[in-house]
Design goal:
mainly alpha, about 70% helix
């Protein structure tokens, strides 16, 4: 199997996602643009959803870079409760710019294989990740479950006595539901001027108010 050809399919899909969103992805269109048949594309990907998920990681990679810069500060790791909020703020900022992409990544058909898709993407595009991922980042970024991603940090906060382990579990669930609720609220209007900023601000306000009540 040619990795170069597989990368071409992912790049072409990413370009359409960026310009038109997921609704613009059609297997026949991709085949025509890449001068091949649909059968050839399916040799490289399980299905169209698999291809879309892989191409979507290019958007998610921007968040990953910011997240890794965030946790590179040893001081912030001593406050997992505060880091949890900063992580959500960062994710919301990126997600609200491309709501359909992020909604599909976290809540679509490949939500339970997200870690595998991220790993596969970096196998294809090694230049996007020249540095090795540390164990802490891996435990969060390569986790298939959004709830478990959140719970990694809140469980540490519980260990420090900031909240109880029961509160950590509840808070993780509530934060994830709020996140999806805000995405769905603005999914039809996210391209309008000011909407990404408005959506991210609304989410952050709700998350911080919730965190203050639990602390």
């Amino acid at each position: 199997m040619s990795l170069e050809k597989k990368r071409l399919f992912v790049e072409a899909t990413y370009k359409i996602l960026k310009e038109e969103g997921p609704e613009g992805i059609k297997i026949r269109r991709l085949a025509k643009e890449l001068n091949c048949t649909s059968t050839v594309i399916y040799r490289y990907f399980d299905n169209l959803d698999h291809l879309i998920a892989l191409a979507s990681i290019r958007f998610f990679n921007e968040y990953i870079i910011d997240f890794r810069n965030m946790v590179s500060d040893p001081q912030i790791l001593t406050d997992p409760y505060g880091l949890n909020l900063r992580m959500w703020d960062c994710l919301a900022e990126h997600a609200c710019k491309n709501i359909p992409i992020y909604e599909n990544l976290f809540f679509g058909k490949y939500q339970h294989s997200l870690g595998e898709v991220i790993f596969e993407y970096y196998q294809l595009f090694l230049d996007d990740s020249k540095q090795d991922f540390d164990g802490y980042s891996v435990s969060i970024l390569f986790n298939d479950d959004l709830f478990q991603r959140d719970f990694v940090l809140l469980r540490r906060a519980a260990a420090l006595g900031t909240i109880t382990i029961q509160e950590a579990a509840s808070l993780s669930q509530i934060e994830c539901h709020i996140f999806r609720g805000v995405l769905l609220k603005y999914i039809d209007d996210y391209k309008k001027p000011g909407i990404p900023q408005k959506a991210a601000a609304e989410f952050s306000k709700l998350i911080h108010e919730l965190a203050d009540r639990y602390r």
